[in-house]
Fold this protein.
Amino acid sequence: MSEAPTQRTTREGEGSRRQSRGGSSGRRSRRGADTAGGGNRIVSGTRPVRLAPRDLLGLGLLGIRTRKVRAALSALGISIGIATMIVVTGIPASSQKALMEELAALGTNTLQAVPTPGAEPPVLLPEESVNMVSRIGPVTVSSAVANTHAVVHRSDRVDAGDFSGLTVLATKRNLLQSVNGAVGSGQFLNAATEKLPTAVLGSVAASRLGFSELNPDEPAPQIYIDKRWFTVIGILDPVTLAADIDRSVMVGWEAAGDQLRFDGHPTVIYVKAREEAIEDVRKVLPATINPQLPGVVQVSRPSDALAAKRATENTFSALFLGLAGVALLVGGIGVANTMFISVLERRREIGLRRALGANRGQIRGQFLTESVALSSLGGLAGSLLGSLAVLGYAGYQGWPPVIPLNAVGGGFAGAVLVGMAAGVYPSIRASRLTPTEALATT
């Protein structure tokens, strides 16, 4: 007799449930086998543990804290490389600045404009020409002097019968900036004194008038110009760029007009401009000073020292780049060697961490972080040591100290980047070690 439909249905349902339970048990068993046999194999459906930046940093610093002497020596090697880079760039830069100041004192960025001499009738530069020149973009200083056609008879320090015959120049109060001049004693003309009967003497003129310095405890000397007494308020140091000033007496532009019948036309215009544009300024000066007759204006050519200064700058720039590159290369080799040895020394540690579940990415991150930390510590120490060395040596030589910020910042950044690059291979090598290989190492 055939079975009833109800009984067959019941047995089929029970069989299906048993098969389902058996399949689930088989999958669980296989999953457990995969987990047990694979060690570091990631189970399907789970995510790898990611270390927080703080934990990764602490892990990277572990080797530095536990091996302080080795870490200190490694950082010392890096710091010496960075300090060397700063020293070999900072000391030449300080020397270069001192040299540039000496060359600048020779007038590398100055020009002089004068009317054509010997012309009949005499050429007169426009009264507004100085202000017109100051409107040229690259011009930084525009000043002038003018011959007043008055002469100095004597000072109150010599006999009344003496006659000096010194030239009197009407002077703009910014003259010293345009000729790199300096006051040796007293003061120069300012907004108040340029309107009064006051005078400033060149170094040679002061000697011819009977004095070389002003004593603040004594009454100011007087000089007799065109039947008027002028009070001497200053004496200049020798002016290298304008020897005529050393032999002249200077009075204010407005005082010359009021006291000496000066007509306001400049005789010599001094121009200071940016060095990179000095040739362009020279080309436009004649037309700027005298637009109607630019041909009657003569402009001096740039100083020969300008070419020497530019050649020196180019030479030093190439030297800086070469020395910086060598120092960074040496530092990078030191970091790479240190990290490679660290991997060899810590194979058992790597194997233990791998056996406890650390994946390859975490091992790579640990050693890469340690490499960057070592490079950063060495970079900071090297930057400090190099800067102190440059300051000390420049002060000893009497040079203006120059610590190139690009060398300091570039050196530190370069140390970090080189540390990262140097730590890549050791970190990859460490991550490729299997737990059994690493733990088997004696």
Summary: Strands lie at 110-115, 139-155, 166-171, 183-186, 198-201, 222-225, 228-236, 248-252, 268-273, 297-299. The radius of gyration is 42 Å.
